[in-house]
Amino acid sequence: MFSEVASSSPLLRNLNPEQLAAVTLPNTHALILAGAGSGKTRVLTTRIAWLLQTGQVSPGGILAVTFTNKAAKEMMVRLSSMLPVNVRGMWIGTFHGLCNRFLRAHYKLANLPSTFQILDTQDQLSAIKRLCKQFNIDDERFPPKQLMWFIAGCKEDGQRAKDVVVRDEETRKKAEIYALYEEQCQREGVVDFGELMLRSYELLRDNAPVREHYQRRFRHILIDEFQDTNKLQYAWIKMLAGQGDAAAAGTHAMPGGSVVAVGDDDQSIYAFRGARVGNMADFVREFDVQQQIKLERNYRSFGNILDSANELISHNSKRLGKNLRTEAGPGEPVRVFEATSDFAEAQWFVDEVRQLVRDGTERKEIALLYRSNAQSRVMETALFNNAIPYRVYGGLRFFERAEIKHALAYLRLMDNPHDDTSFMRIVNFPPRGIGMRSIEQLQDVARAAGCSLHDAVSAVSGKAGTNLGAFVAKLDVLREQTPGLSLREIIELVLQHSGLEEHYKLDKEGQDRLENLGELVNAAESFVSLEGFGRDAVALPIDELGVALRQSPASQGLDPSAPLGNELLPELLAPNQETGETLSPLAAFLTHAALESGDNQAQAGQDAVQLMTVHSSKGLEFDCVFISGLEDGIFPHENSLSDAGGIEEERRLMYVAITRARKRLYLTHSQTRMLHGQTRYNLKSRFFDELPEAALKWITPKNRGFAQAYGGNSGTWGASNSGAGGARGDWAAAAFASRKPVGETFANPVVPPQRNAPAHGLKTGMEVFHAKFGEGRVMMLEGSGDDARAQINFTRHGVKWLALSVAKLTVV
């Protein structure tokens, strides 16, 4: 039968049997389980075109719901190319877009002005702040962001302020604020995103003629990404299909209509946004779905990749169940690499990227996926140091993220209180009651006196002067607490006492930002090690360093009468290779952060390696995919380890990550990783035990010892790889060993090079590698022992003189 249908319509040619069955479904409710890479968008679009071409429905009788505007536009473009129809008049769009269209048509019934405006998230937050100010609501007890999330959560559950179940005084107060917010929005003629959905739902529920009109009109309802729907969105769909609350009250579904839901319960990864994977099972039960079609043929990946995905996800319970398959053959095995440290993992990734590019792979077809944003920092540094262009997809590079820039602004003011740019960034962050009027007053005083904003604070009077004075006093107290502290300790002090940590702890989505702030501590710890400072080097600026040293010379191991400046030991101060000046660890780190945030950013259209979280990767595909940080506590995330539902969500996330790869898939984990400035010893992810051994290739021996991990004494990774990989493996292992981890020890540890070793082994003309400056050629050597230095011409950074007792150089 299907072959006859296919031959009768050009639309249906080249569809596989499952796709053909989905496209030509009879007029009944159905669920299409569409696996990753199975041609879901093609099936949805072709079904709409087939319904129109066969005369089963007019363009106005179809409602197609997508989750992104991009998907809706793509669907309309494809339809326009298939059929000579005007797609602009069709109801194809996102939930919010369609609800906006519905309310514009029925604004009077919805009790809205014809010109009602939509509040985006920032506008909504501003509106709540105005409300709090007007009614003297304590914004410390009820932070505006928390109120916004409370209101959004209530609306997603279909609750008005009067419907909120009051269990305690705090909930009662929030419900009162919710009611005041509703009155304010109604008075101003504005709606937020949640209101678009809720008011549309209520209008359908409470107005029988309108509801019946749309039930008669939309004979075919198609919903994409059904696994990502929340409670209210599903209720809205049921109302249009006659399965909602009104049906229970005596209204029945209009005969002849159909709802076709398309989704993949194995790719439901947005529970934190309110997505409810259980909606798929509820749909099957409540709509009495008799037609379930599984799109299992994958057109994206090779067999070993799909076998890994299938085996992994089979460990989840309550699945609707499907298995991806391909006719492309098994392809290459899934490569597994175990590193000794996060540094070694990053350097191996860089080496592998170089080899892939040499073999003809475009950089834009190489993707690095990680569980949380904080993991990108080490990888970004490795790519930056090796001059490999990269782009952070769907987010900002590490040193450009707002929370990092806030923390760095505090550190810059510790180093230089006259930095007006940093002062302006954090003078009211976290919020401390300093408004624009106060800042303008301060700027006027500073301009008249010809001084910095910091110095002008004492001349500002009134409430503005009091609040500004309190801010400057906080900075002064922080600065007074820093003498004798290392860079890591100063950053930890700033994060705690600036209020940044507390601010993000109260943020519903602040966990990611807190992890990034913790990674800033790691960045500092790595920096002082790689730049030749001692791990506990005093981080004060030079002019204050002398005071600190003379106050406690013995603690630094120095003669109190020793001169300060360029004569200080390298552990305390390091030469700036650009100018010859001596920088403190704090100043050097701030310079490093500024340079790294502003360089190596891929330009639009440039061939660049793609970095992203797994969540951001959904819907994308690449020839080569690296999934990094596969350790328990990282992936799966530590927040999920005590909850079965959480582990299943993490497993779905891993399934999404695996199925992004077309040709090559790499899985990497590390024996040690720096977290919050401390070296942690990690167990490899439990997900490795759920992958098929036949599909895997262990690049490093499975369950081997520490020394063999990456450039160890017995059996280095570099021995089996051509080029510079082995040498850089030795560098990475040495860099890790130099961090002096505490606790567990391993057999045959890698011995780092001694910084006082007189025999550096370098010769003129040798190719060398430096962690910061990359590859270079030795031009000249002079001195011996601790005084030995080399002139090196670096490909990217030019000619530099490096002290060999400080610089970590590896012969390539």
From TrEMBL:
<keyword id="KW-0378">Hydrolase</keyword>
<comment type="similarity">
    <text>Belongs to the helicase family. UvrD subfamily.</text>
</comment>
<keyword id="KW-0547">Nucleotide-binding</keyword>
<dbReference type="Pfam" id="PF13361">
    <property type="entry name" value="UvrD_C"/>
</dbReference>
<dbReference type="GO" id="GO:0003677">
    <property type="term" value="F:DNA binding"/>
</dbReference>
<dbReference type="InterPro" id="IPR000212">
    <property type="entry name" value="DNA_helicase_UvrD/REP"/>
</dbReference>
<dbReference type="GO" id="GO:0016787">
    <property type="term" value="F:hydrolase activity"/>
</dbReference>
<feature type="domain" description="UvrD-like helicase C-terminal">
    <location>
        <begin position="303"/>
        <end position="619"/>
    </location>
</feature>
<feature type="binding site">
    <location>
        <begin position="34"/>
        <end position="41"/>
    </location>
    <ligand>
        <name>ATP</name>
    </ligand>
</feature>
<dbReference type="GO" id="GO:0043138">
    <property type="term" value="F:3'-5' DNA helicase activity"/>
</dbReference>
<keyword id="KW-0238">DNA-binding</keyword>
<protein>
    <recommendedName>
        <fullName>DNA 3'-5' helicase</fullName>
        <ecNumber>5.6.2.4</ecNumber>
    </recommendedName>
</protein>
<keyword id="KW-0067">ATP-binding</keyword>
<dbReference type="GO" id="GO:0005829">
    <property type="term" value="C:cytosol"/>
</dbReference>
<feature type="domain" description="UvrD-like helicase ATP-binding">
    <location>
        <begin position="13"/>
        <end position="302"/>
    </location>
</feature>
<keyword id="KW-0413">Isomerase</keyword>
<dbReference type="InterPro" id="IPR027417">
    <property type="entry name" value="P-loop_NTPase"/>
</dbReference>
<dbReference type="Pfam" id="PF21196">
    <property type="entry name" value="PcrA_UvrD_tudor"/>
</dbReference>
<dbReference type="InterPro" id="IPR014017">
    <property type="entry name" value="DNA_helicase_UvrD-like_C"/>
</dbReference>
<keyword id="KW-0347">Helicase</keyword>
<dbReference type="GO" id="GO:0000725">
    <property type="term" value="P:recombinational repair"/>
</dbReference>
<dbReference type="Pfam" id="PF00580">
    <property type="entry name" value="UvrD-helicase"/>
</dbReference>
<dbReference type="GO" id="GO:0005524">
    <property type="term" value="F:ATP binding"/>
</dbReference>
<dbReference type="InterPro" id="IPR014016">
    <property type="entry name" value="UvrD-like_ATP-bd"/>
</dbReference>
<dbReference type="InterPro" id="IPR013986">
    <property type="entry name" value="DExx_box_DNA_helicase_dom_sf"/>
</dbReference>
<dbReference type="GO" id="GO:0033202">
    <property type="term" value="C:DNA helicase complex"/>
</dbReference>
